[in-house]
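Notes from the 1:1 (GR / supervisor)

We went over the backlog. Supervisor wanted to see one worked example end to end before approving the batch request, so GR pasted a single chain during the call. The sequence is below; no edits were made to it. Supervisor asked that the structure be written out right there so they could see what the output format looks like.
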Amino acid sequence: MLRIGPYSFANPAVQAALSGYSEAPMRMVARACGAPYAIHEVVLDKILIGKSKLHKRIFHVPAEDHPVGGQIMGADPVEFGKAAAVMAEVFDIIDINFGCPVRKVLGRCRGGFLLSTPDVAIEMIRRVRDAVPPEKPVTVKMRRGLDDSAESERNFWRILDAAFELGAAAVTVHGRTVEQRYVGPSRWAFLERVKRHVGDRTILGSGDLFTPEDVKRMLENTGVDGVTVARGCIGNPWIFREVAALLRGDPLPEPPGVAEQGAIIRRHFELTVEVEGAETASRTMRKFGIKYSELHPHHDEVKRAFIDARDAAAWQRVMSEWYAPDRDWPPGRRKLDAGDLVAAGACY
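Structure output shown during the call:
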């Protein structure tokens, strides 16, 4: 049982905040496939406290999309606290991003950069906890450090301890450094150290979770209380129900067939149309379609078809041709796990 403040989740695998992906449509599809909790993509504090056309999309949270987390990123503690108060008007849990490794973000002293300035990071946590209503949990997302230096590790432990002292309900730790970005293995042994260090406080692990077996291994090998599934759930929301089955001791469900894949993809498209309109939705959904295609028995052809789908009509043609529910399709495919990706020489 994963606990974050007043919330308890029987399935300890939740959907991470994913920049460019985890708006309401993706979250709703993940919930339909068993995700108990999902986090909106990271939002810059300046956007939240200013006037922005993005507000309508950010705060589009359907009634069924709860509990939902809102993740914020910034550099100034005062603005950060103000932004957290705005986000807390709609979102149930406020998540602080100290993990983003994107160079542009680091250059502006945001995200993972803050692991190198513990005084600022701690003040930001304090400001957020003070600004958010006490009944709403505050959580923190971190990487294991800016780099592999001893100073970086000392900063990590200082921020981690301060987060819980200031009232954080949970901390998510990614097993890579900021410097690594997404290259090289995530150090799960470090997650085990973190969990031993904090005792009964809630730790979620992150990094190299592409299959339900990966999730089960992380939980068993590190002792973390839960996991945030990130890239492993893009185009594969079924991973959440598969994790639940494995943790119950049930056999791993068969991969979703083409008809089931098509039903979820169509629903994802419909939800995106509600937010963006049909033409914009068709462009947004191309990146999802490419990832969904990995489960299709004719992966290469379907991937090319989604790449070429430039408008709503083309999108519908792909669905009619490759996801017709009345055709006799071969079984669906499974995604590769982290070990297979390494063996294949993939950059993950």
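Supervisor's comment: The domain at 2-248 is CATH 3.20.20.70 (TIM Barrel).
Batch request approved.
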